Amino acid sequence: MIHDVVHHFYATAREDPVIGPVFRAHVPDAQWHHHLARIETFWCSTLLGTRTYDGRPMPKHLAIPELSDVHFRRWLALFRHTVEMLCPPKTAQLFVARSERIAEAFRINIAMHRKKDLVFHAPLTREPYP
Which CDD domains match (predicted)? Predict the structure, then answer.
């Protein structure tokens, strides 16, 4: 199921007009297959506790200067739609809850890295599926 979610979601995300350009700019076509395998391992570790993922995704995301809340909202909307379409309800809820926590952690780390004031850093609002 994780394989199906990852491959379906990223195929959609790569073509999305908001987040697709970011993916295409930072993950070249030649590395796309490897990237999907790493993301699949990440989700297996995150959801199933396999401990097979040994990467550090934060530095790669910190290096994307154009990454903003617009991108996180769209990523979450597409991801939520994908898991609700492909997974049983309880599994989809787990995916969604985990993805939202990850997105918030990334946002906070990116904001700190960019030396933004976190006092007024409101949580992401949910964007409807386009």
Answer: TrHb3_P
The contacts of residue 101 (CB under 8 Å, 6+ apart) are none
Cα 53 to Cα 38: distance, rounded to the nearest angstrom: 7
Alpha-carbon span 109 to 106, nearest angstrom? 5
- Which tens digits make up the pLDDT trace of 65-110? 989 999 999 999 999 999 999 999 999 999 999 999 999 999 989 9
N-term to C-term CA, the chain: 23
Of 57, 66, 73, whose CA–CA distance to 106 is shortest?
Answer: 57
State the pTM of this model: 0.89
